[in-house]
Q: What sequence folds into this?
């Protein structure tokens, strides 16, 4: 998916919306090519489906959605709501929970799946770590978290109150330490090592 679509501030065109809807399809196809991940490819492709058939890309309805797909859909929705996006700020945990429950009442998300996701999201995380993977410093962890949230280098500069050139150096230093060369790979590293940021009040 082109970054220009994900980063667009204005309303998406019908063509752009269609490309966004296809990311579930492409994701399923990509995952299916990995021997180790192929067994969960179909499940991954169901993460935007809804019980009433209003989701995508298959427009599956309740009978065709197993419990795992229902939980994944609720978890994905909650995660998306509590993340900052170029076109809107992140919702607070309470606001996201209210939205999820409303989706369940409307028959789009499974009520039991929503309850399970909210129960898991309410868990207390362990105390902040003092030693980060790959020898990352606390500052580099902050940069990696901003990258994982989808912020551009200019936005990272604004968030850290540094120059754009300094932000670019920070990002490249992080890439070098964790051995990646793209934002997607950096975000994956952050997810794999559980160092994604919790949504804070500044995002709400």
A:
């Amino acid at each position: 998916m082109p970054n220009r679509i994900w980063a667009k501030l204005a309303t998406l065109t019908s063509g752009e919306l269609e490309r966004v809807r296809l990311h579930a399809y492409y994701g399923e196809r990509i995952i299916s090519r990995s021997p180790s991940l192929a067994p969960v490819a179909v499940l991954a492709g169901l993460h935007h489906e809804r019980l009433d058939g209003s989701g995508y890309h298959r427009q599956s309805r309740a009978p065709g959605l197993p419990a795992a797909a229902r939980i994944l859909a609720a978890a994905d929705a909650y995660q998306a709501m509590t993340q900052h996006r170029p076109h809107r700020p992140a919702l607070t945990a309470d606001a996201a929970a209210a939205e999820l429950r409303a989706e369940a009442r409307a028959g789009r998300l499974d009520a039991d799946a929503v309850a399970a996701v909210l129960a898991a999201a309410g868990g207390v995380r362990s105390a902040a770590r003092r030693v980060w993977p790959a020898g990352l410093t606390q500052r580099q962890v902050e940069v990696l978290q901003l990258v994982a949230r989808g912020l551009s280098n200019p936005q990272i500069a604004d968030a850290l109150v540094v120059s754009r050139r300094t932000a670019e150096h920070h990002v490249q230093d992080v890439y070098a330490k964790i051995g990646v060369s793209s934002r997607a790979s950096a975000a994956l590293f952050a997810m794999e090592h559980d160092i994604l940021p919790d949504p804070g009040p500044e995002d709400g």
Q: What stands out?
A: Residues 133-203 form a domain with the Arc Repressor Mutant, subunit A fold (CATH 1.10.10.10). Residues 67-81 form the longest helix (15 residues). DSSP finds eleven helices and no strands in the chain. The mean pLDDT is 87.
